[in-house]
UniProtKB/TrEMBL annotation, chain A:
It comes from Gulbenkiania indica. GO terms for cellular component: plasma membrane. Belongs to the ABC transporter superfamily. The keyword ATP-binding applies. PROSITE patterns: ABC_TRANSPORTER_1, ABC_TRANSPORTER_2. Pfam families: ABC_tran. It is found in: Cell membrane. Gene3D superfamilies: P-loop containing nucleotide triphosphate hydrolases. This is ABC-type polar amino acid transport system, ATPase component. It comes from the Bacteria.
TrEMBL record, chain B:
GO terms for cellular component: ATP-binding cassette (ABC) transporter complex. Residues 17-212 form the ABC transmembrane type-1 domain. It is found in: Cell inner membrane; Cell membrane. It is a multi-pass membrane protein. The lineage of its organism: Bacteria, Pseudomonadati, Pseudomonadota, Betaproteobacteria, Neisseriales. GO terms for molecular function: transmembrane transporter activity. Belongs to the binding-protein-dependent transport system permease family. HisMQ subfamily. This is Glutamate/aspartate import permease protein GltK. Its main location: membrane. GO terms for biological process: amino acid transport. Gene3D superfamilies: MetI-like (1.10.3720.10). PROSITE patterns: ABC_TM1 (PS50928). The keyword Transmembrane applies.
Length: 245, 221
């Protein structure tokens, strides 16, 4: 299997404070990797490094054969091929759902209005929200907004999807509708890197689990061994806390 | 007091008002566009650009508007002469317009800058994550939201500018106030005409402020 995302010895500092230390891992094509860990462990920072929303000072990240950190890399072009879903949805509030779905397709990929519309509505239908096409994001619930955000990313035909705590800002009853969409996506073979605390999702869907603590990747193994017998004490503690309830 | 002379003078005063409003609208549009670029400069990570924009804002906010008007009246023809090598006659209107645009841009820039900073980092990230360039993210995502938020402030600043346009008196441009003053002088009734002009400025500014306040309330909800 070839690596879609390859992270090699990535180090990042905020001033004197080191947020990422020698992080290395890979996500193969079609693989679903869940990144977990306590807050402040650097997992969100790491995933934002993958599409260069956060710069890093040392190491290398290669996405689909292109080096993210290289000065010559056309970052907008690279990012257009990697979908990202954010904790707070980040739909554009001044645009309708339809325009949210089509704006990057037409302005970034240069697709025609009709083509973008067709594609956008197809994905909107897939996340079950076709009836809301004409609305503004503010008129939808959090769960619905997040599903639109996933559709918006998918409409760009990404080679991989990054999820940065996609359910953390949601009310409990809305979490599942988002996880269901993600599960379906994983089953279709999308390459996914998900920062999440949803261990049930990790258990069901993930191929591998990465556990981070204080900027280090502490565990990086298939999910059976992670949930069965995590090697590090820190991961054991984390799991016992998070699985208790 | 005899206000009867004002009615026959209205067409002439109206001409002055047209000059005032033309100057106002063009200065606001030009000032907002220039101000937006200066705001983007101030927010730039490029130290030279942001320093230059900051110097511009600080400079124009530290000198009187009247000085800028007189200065541009003298400087614009000189500059054009220097650039084109020809003597280009520039009217008071054009030089005043440039003066207002550049002066107001400093004030608009601060409003626009605050408006851009009020948009969350997450929106910028979302725009970038979809592959947008800096220019696209600004034009399609950030500025449309920012302008909505700052519209009341921009309009408020424009009402102040409406009153300040009367300073063109200094270079002899026949705006509303100047035409009222000269009419009054000719007819020997300077007081009546100035009182009338004052009333007109008051009514327009007050009504505009009232509308802006209502707009502000609607945008907040």
């Amino acid at each position: 299997m070839s690596a879609m995302i390859s992270i090699q010895n990535v180090n990042k500092w905020y001033g004197d404070f080191q947020v990422l230390t020698d992080c290395s891992t890979q996500v193969a094509k079609g693989e679903v990797v869940v990144v977990c860990g306590p807050s402040g462990s650097g997992k969100s920072t790491l995933i934002k490094c993958v599409n260069a929303l956060e710069p890093f000072q040392k190491g290398e990240i290669i996405v689909d054969g292109i080096s993210v950190g290289a000065p010559k890399t056309n970052l907008p072009k690279l990012r257009a091929r990697v979908g990202m879903v954010f904790q707070h949805f980040e739909l554009f509030p001044h645009l309708t759902i339809t325009d949210n779905l089509t704006i990057a397709q037409t302005k970034v990929l240069g697709r025609s209005k009709e083509e973008a519309m067709e594609k956008g509505l197809m994905y909107l239908d897939r996340v079950g929200l076709k009836a809301h096409a004409h609305k503004h994001p503010g008129q939808l619930s959090g769960g619905q907004q997040q599903r639109v955000a996933i559709a918006r990313a998918l409409a760009m035909d990404p080679v991989a999807m990054l999820f940065d705590e996609p359910t953390s800002a949601l009310d409990p009853e809305m979490i599942n509708e988002v996880l269901d969409v993600m599960t379906e996506l994983a089953q279709e073979g999308m390459t996914m890197m998900c920062v999440t605390h949803e261990m049930g999702f990790a258990r069901r869907v993930a191929h591998r689990v990465i556990f981070m603590d204080k900027g280090h990747i502490v565990e990086d193994c298939d999910k059976e061994s992670f949930f069965g017998s995590p090697r590090s004490e820190r991961a054991q503690q984390f799991l016992s806390k998070i699985l208790q309830h | 007091m005899d206000f009867s002379q004002i009615v026959p003078a209205l067409p002439a005063l109206m001409e002055g008002m047209v000059v005032t409003l033309k100057l106002l609208v063009m200065a606001v549009l030009g000032g907002v566009v220039l101000g937006t670029f200066i705001a983007l400069g101030r927010l730039s990570s490029n130290a030279f650009l942001s320093g230059l924009a900051k110097a511009y804002v600080n400079y124009f906010r530290s000198i009187p508007l009247l000085l800028v008007i007189i200065w541009f009246y003298l400087a614009v023809p000189m500059l054009l002469n220097w650039i084109t090598g020809d003597f280009v006659p520039v009217g008071a209107f054009a030089s005043c317009l440039v003066a207002f645009m550049m002066f107001e841009a400093a004030y608009y820039a601060e409003i626009v800058r605050a408006g851009i900073q009020a948009i969350s980092r997450g929106q910028v990230n979302a725009a970038y994550a979809l592959g947008m360039t800096y220019g696209q993210a600004m034009r399609l995502v950030i500025l449309p939201q920012a302008f909505r938020k700052m519209l009341p402030l921009l309009l408020q600043q424009s009402i102040i500018l409406f009153q300040d346009t009367s300073l063109v008196y200094a270079v002899g441009l026949m705006d509303f106030l100047n035409s009222a003053r000269s009419r009054g002088d000719i007819l020997g009734q300077p007081h009546e005409f100035l009182i009338f002009a004052g009333a007109v400025y008051f009514v327009i500014s007050y009504c505009a402020s009232y509308i802006v306040k209502r707009l502000q309330k609607r945008l907040v909800v």
